[in-house]
Specification:
With 145 residues, the protein is an alpha/beta fold. The chain has a single domain, classed as Sugar-phosphate isomerase, RpiB/LacA/LacB (Ribose 5-phosphate Isomerase B, Chain: A, 3-Layer(aba) Sandwich), CATH 3.40.1400. Helices cover 46% and strands 17% of the residues. The chain has six helices and five strands. It has helices at residues 12-24, 39-52, 66-72, 86-94, 110-122, 132-142; strands at 2-7, 28-31, 57-62, 80-82, 100-104. The chain has a five-stranded parallel beta sheet with strand order 2-1-3-5-4, sandwiched between helices. α2 crosses α3 (66-72) and α4 runs parallel beside α5 (110-122).
Length: 145
């Protein structure tokens, strides 16, 4: 898969440690930075590219993961989930078909973050699952239906 990774300046070292790990897992990485102190700019650009299919999935990091999650979710077709544990990392994809995960560099250790990323990337949403109607409702609402 082609994975987009971006962050705010506070999370640069965190992102720079994640990139080689994602590559070790066999994925291509597109680095969205960022030197931009306005984390929403990076989150929106990354989310737009994931929604358009430029990248298959995305990972965005800021101090807490909250701000970039809110910003990414404003982009139509972007579905970002804030990850704080392994179960959420799995369910982001399995139950919610999230195409982006967000994390907080100031609240998550890098080794734990690697575990989150591995779980998230190894799972695939099943469109025939019992979660599909729930995800479909979100997509329909976004489209004004």
């Amino acid at each position: 898969m082609r994975i987009a990774i971006g962050c705010d300046p506070n999370a640069t070292l965190f992102k720079d440690e994640l990139i080689p790990y994602v590559k070790e897992l066999g994925h291509e990485v597109v680095d969205y930075g960022s030197d931009d102190p306005i984390y929403a700019n990076t989150a929106i650009k990354l989310a737009e590219d994931v929604a358009k299919g430029v990248c298959d999935r995305g990972i965005i990091i800021c101090g807490t993961g909250i701000g970039v999650c809110i910003a990414a979710n404003k982009v139509p077709g972007a579905y970002a989930a804030l990850i704080n544990n392994i179960y959420q990392a799995q369910r982001a994809q399995l139950s919610n078909n999230a195409n982006i995960i967000t994390m907080g560099a100031q609240v998550t250790g890098i080794e734990l973050a690697k575990c989150f990323v591995k779980e998230y990337l190894k799972n695939q949403f099943d469109p025939n699952s019992r979660s599909a109607p729930k995800v479909d409702r979100i997509v329909k609402y976004e489209k004004g239906e």
